[in-house]
């Protein structure tokens, strides 16, 4: 399936763009940071980090959207990603389109994830015409849950689920996930 080139977005402080070769080094450092990867099964090796970045590019080619690299407009610094990712694992709400983010530690606490996610939600609803976007994380990840709530996403505790890709015998604290939803009818585009 052919897609138009993935769009780039400029927000007040950020550029959401396709990944560059120069992003690979800071991405590998982020992926090896235990604080950044606290709510994932493990940090990533350099090889795993490279594979992740390659898969991001493949999904852009397949879908015309994906996990955009985040760049601070004023400095050109790569600080992580925010974007849209198909959730295809087996769960009551899948298949679905997930909004996701991961930022380097120095970028935490500046509102970057919320700012970038708003641009992605706007794209999902106004350009892609999606009816619903989901976000999910381990129940212990209160920082990401706070971003979901700032975005206006809604959680029904009855939708919480055990993530089928998280092995309970090694990561029991990460198995249970919260699910937040945003429906297009509840989205207010930012002008």
Automatic annotation (TrEMBL):
GO terms for molecular function: acyltransferase activity, transferring groups other than amino-acyl groups. Pfam families: Acetyltransf_3. PROSITE patterns: GNAT (PS51186). It comes from the Bacteria. Residues 14-170 form the N-acetyltransferase domain. InterPro entries: Acyl_CoA_acyltransferase, GNAT_dom, N-acetyltransferase. PANTHER family: GNAT FAMILY, PUTATIVE (AFU_ORTHOLOGUE AFUA_3G00765)-RELATED-RELATED, N-ACETYLTRANSFERASE DOMAIN-CONTAINING PROTEIN. This is N-acetyltransferase. It comes from Actinorhabdospora filicis.
